[in-house]
Amino acid sequence: MNVLIPHSWLLDYIKTDAKPADIANALSLHAFSCEKIIKSEDGDSLFEIEITPNRGDALSVLGIARELKAVLPRQGFKAEWIEQRALKVSEGTTDKLEVVITDPTLVPRFSAVVLDNIKIAQSPTLTHQRLLKVGTRALNNVIDVTNYMMFDKGQPMHAFDYDKIGGHKMIVRESKAGEEVITLDSVKRVLPAGVIVIEDGDGRLIDLCGIMGAKNSEVDENTKKVLLFVQEYDPQRIRKASMSLGHRTEAALRFEKGIDTAGILPALWEAVEMLQQTAAARVSSPLIDIVNVSKPEKMVAFDYARINYVAGIEIDKKTAEQSLMDLGFVIRDGKVLVPSWRYDDIDIAEDLAEEVIRLYGYYKLPNTLLSTPIPLTSASPSFYWEDRIKDMLKNLGFFEIYTTSMTTKKLAGSDPVEIANPLNEDLTSLKTSLLPQLKEVMDKNQGYSDKIKLFELASTYHKVSGTLPAQPLRLALVTKGLDYLNVKGIVEAIYAEMRITGFSQVEIKDYGKNVYGVELPFEEMVLLAKNTGTYTPVTHFNAIKEDMTFEVKGTEYYADIILKIKSVDSRNEKIEFKDLYKNALTLSFEFLDRNKQITSEDTKTIRENIVGMLAKEFGITLKK
Amino acid sequence: MDLSSLSLAKNEIKEELKTADSLAAIENLRVKFLGKNGVLKRLTAELASLSVEDKKQVGLVINEIKQEVETGLALATEQLSTQHKADSLEDFVKTLPGKKPEIGHLHVTTQAIREIVEVFKPLGFTRVRHPEIDWEYYAFEALNIPATHPARDEWETFFIDAPVDPKMSRQVITPHTSNGQIREMLKGDLPIRMLNISRCGRRQSDISHNPTFFQFEGLVVDKGINISHLKGVLNYFAKNFYGPDRQIRLRPYDFRFTEPSFEIDISCGICGGVGCKLCKGGWLELGGAGMVHPNVLIAGGVDPTQYSGFAFGWGVERVYMMKSGTRIDDIRHLLGNDLKFLEQF
Ligand SMILES: [Zn+2]
User: Fold this and answer.
1) Cα atoms found within 13 Å of the Cα of residue A140, Cβ hemisphere only
2) One CATH from 3.30.930.10, 3.30.70.790, 3.40.50.1950, 3.40.50.300 for B108-342
3) Distance CA A562, CA B84 (A)
4) Which of A33, B46, B108, B257 is 20 to 30 A away from residue A294, measured at CA?
């Protein structure tokens, strides 16, 4: 996700001689892509930075400043850290909050404090301006502080009107399906089960935790007491709730990436101090701080050899250690202590290698081509045939089409593999045949030309009980403006190109209006295909060619006729179908004797034998 | 002027008439012989100085010559114009477009895949294909992507409505070609230089995403593989696919199955890396890459203390659209199947 970080705000944390452009460049080279520098009206520079999902710690001014402290010196700039004062605020005793947490995994840490004497007013100008720069409207001095601290420290906060919390009691629990809550934006939200919510002593839901507060407990102009609330929630539950409610708030986006547990109390005290200054707040309760999930110190082995192995060059050990220290790691007895804000992100030696090498600079590593021996693997013959048949069809005037693997139930065919979570109604099922979608493409392009030829070579998907679907490659053709025998001829030419003989009859679908479609089992065809021919010696004797037309009845099988003719004489070198007009079947013959020059006397005899056989076997007569 | 010189002139004129090979030449001859200051006018003028007898004789010959010239010119004109008709038709035919044989069109995606394969082939990469519908185990678990990771939830990945396997978990439409990493390693042959190109699916549809798209996945597993090899191979690809003047840049990124992980950028071909409207500060994102995570090697049955590797998985259509020249502005055209779009490639 992208964040907006004002340059002037960063200077709260860091003193540097780097200009905004230098900062953007150093970030992009060593840490995060700075996609834009936006100039604000008052001349400030706003960095738009893309933060990777593992770096929730960097979704704040503090987080980016911490990163700059480490990366700016690598580009030759000064980066002096401005120490933040540790705040100490005395706690009160008058107000209390009863807290019930039904499941400790919901809230790894629950922190809150009550403030009284609140005077609602506008925030100071600086707060206003800073919130505006990061894209948030100022509301009042209490709510603004909670928003300000989220952008400043990466700690989302919430302020309740303490007097609106029934019985001053909170029950943190998971929602039941169908429960309703009206959030601060006045939208009624119907909850699925499993959303983290807070119920007050009157049985009302007063918070959609980590996403947005409820209207019934909001801070308004009459608020006198505030419950300031800083939590750590279970990231998975927050993401799930926020996604299923379609409500992606700044708070939710931060909670679901995980927040720095150790940063909760400092942020809380700083917020209290701001409220003391701007809203005359006084702490009126003890600090409530419930730690449900403890995070022990995390140490990762410092493997210097591994760092150099991964980098492919040697990085000076001191440089490596300094890099880690600048990023907040502590090196202790050959091990590295992970800072609290990187707790979930750093686990193994490779993680540390990444930190060291990115600070060193990926751009400084050499480009090396592989020099080890090429593996002895051979490619599947399928790729060869896919290329060859695609080229063939292209050169026969076909358009290659790619359709989606998912389609409507109607087009998918019978008993298709179904998608459990389709994107929309048009993509619910996986196709069992390529033809329906290819035919649809034909229909869509009707007006393109009188003659259109389309093909698609892709997988179809078929249920197999107990395991993955079968996903065979198939080849489909759909044509318009070609007659049946042309289409059949193309299919035969494909088989001939792959040197496949004796294939079973394929069904050519007649869609009417001169549109035909056919689907071939390409994967099986590849298994039968041969890319070399078998040599038959070429004879120097000439063949005699001649056409003969017969009257057929239409009840015969063409293949039977040809087979029988071939068996009449071995000198029937070639017999080809030429034409069928009404019941007149014209065949082209090529007579060849491989041992001597064939004569017209020879062919006369052969011809008579053929005619005689056809009359006897089929009752077919030669047309005069 | 006498009769003999006149008959000589008559013969010359006859010969000259035969040389007329164009309408313009005929017109020139007409002016020369019959014009205001033409030969015949001059001869007629000269008649005045002759005797009455001679006048008569010479006058007859001049008339003969005049007639001969007129018929000669008419004949030549007619001949030329019919001859010209035949000529111009032949010329016109030559201006007509040829009758093209029907040449079809391979889809942009096929062309892109072929170009990609050609670049990696000389580096010893072999093309493979692994299941498009695969187990969650190969697509996520073995790639070090935990069950809680957002990529594994129902908003990002398509799941198949099928019983869950106790070991392999759910069936998914692979959201990336990286399932091929595990399946390739499990074949048990090392070293590996794999180029896995396959159809993938993700639950998204906008101007730069189709719910189904193609990815190409490179995987190298060998002894001593480090980041400089990843840089070397991807730099080779960028220069061969996009042009020798293009540069690549690695930015830190986060993928669960690689450590370290990178986003690879290529210098913008439009502004040459200075920064323009089409790029981000002179750079365009190509896609992700990284050093194979040790957990992934282990899941593939490879010993991470002996072997290391790198991997990258990029969108075929995306990478191709970034070639200057294609100018395809919306990736959804690619599956729109409008022949008027497809005929342009
Ligand atoms: Zn540019």
Assistant:
1) 14
2) 3.30.930.10
3) 57
4) B257
Report how far residue A369's alpha carbon sits from residue A352's, in angstroms, rounded to the nearest whole number. Answer: 25
Measured CA to CA, the distance from residue B166 to residue B164 in angstroms comes to 6
CB contact under 8 A, A52 and B252: yes
- Domains identified in chain A and CATH numbers: 2-81 (3.30.56.10), 98-291 (3.50.40.10), 299-364 (3.30.56.10), 381-528 (3.30.930.10), 544-622 (3.30.70.380)
Using pLDDT thresholds of 50, 70 and 90, give the confidence band for residue A69.
very high
Cβ atoms within 10 Å, residue A295? 14
Least confident piece of the model among A124-128, A338-342, A377-381, A447-451: A377-381
Best mutation target, A2, A34, A362, to test chain B (most B CBs within 10 A): A362
Query: Residue B177 in contact with residue B314, Cβ under 8 Å?
Result: no
Chain B interface disruption, residue of A405, A445, A459, most B CBs within 10 A: A405
| CA distance linking residue A581 with residue A603, whole number of Å | 25
CB A458 within 8 A of CB A520: no
| Ordered per-residue pLDDT tens for chain B, 345 residues | 666 777 777 777 778 777 777 778 888 888 888 888 887 788 778 777 777 777 778 888 888 888 888 888 888 777 776 665 556 777 777 778 888 888 899 999 999 999 999 999 999 999 999 999 999 999 999 999 988 888 888 888 999 999 999 999 999 999 999 999 999 999 999 999 999 999 999 998 877 788 889 999 999 999 999 999 999 999 999 999 999 999 899 999 989 999 999 999 998 887 877 777 778 778 888 999 999 999 999 999 999 999 999 999 999 988 988 886 666 667 777 888 899 988 888
Asked if B280 and A402 come within 8 Å (Cβ–Cβ), the reply is no
ipTM of the modeled complex: 0.85
Cβ count near A363 (within 10 Å): 13
* pLDDT, position A503: 67
Phi–psi pair at A160, nearest 5 degrees = -100, 155
Nearest to B272 by CA among B238, B244, B245: B245
Residues near A611 by Cβ (< 8 Å), separated by ≥ 6? A548, A621, A622
Q: Is A91 helix (H, G, I), strand (E, B) or coil?
A: coil
The DSSP call for residue A165 is S
Report pLDDT digits (tens) over B150-205.
888 888 899 999 999 999 999 999 999 999 999 999 999 999 999 999 999 999 88
- Separation between Cα atoms, residue A335 and residue A134, nearest integer Å: 39
Q: Do B229 and A369 touch (CB under 8 A)?
A: yes
The full DSSP string for A199-226 is EETTS-EEEETTTEEBGGG---TT---E
d(C-alpha A601, C-alpha A606), whole Å: 9
Domain-by-domain residue ranges, chain B? 3-94, 108-342
The closest CB to that of A370, out of B204, B233, B249, belongs to B233
**Measured distance CA(A37)–CA(A21) in Å, rounded:** 8
Cβ–Cβ contact A511 with B under 8 A: no
The per-residue pLDDT of chain A, averaged, comes to 93
Cα of B286 from ligand 1 centre, angstroms: 14
Closest by alpha carbon to B289, among B316, B262, B256, B308? B262
For residue B36, the cross-strand partners are: none
User: DSSP secondary structure string, A452-507?
Assistant: EEEEEEEE--B--TTSPPB--EEEEEEEES--HHHHHHHHHHHHHHTT--SPPPPP
- Predicted local confidence at residue B87, as pLDDT: 63
φ, ψ for residue A388 (rounded to 5)? -65, -45
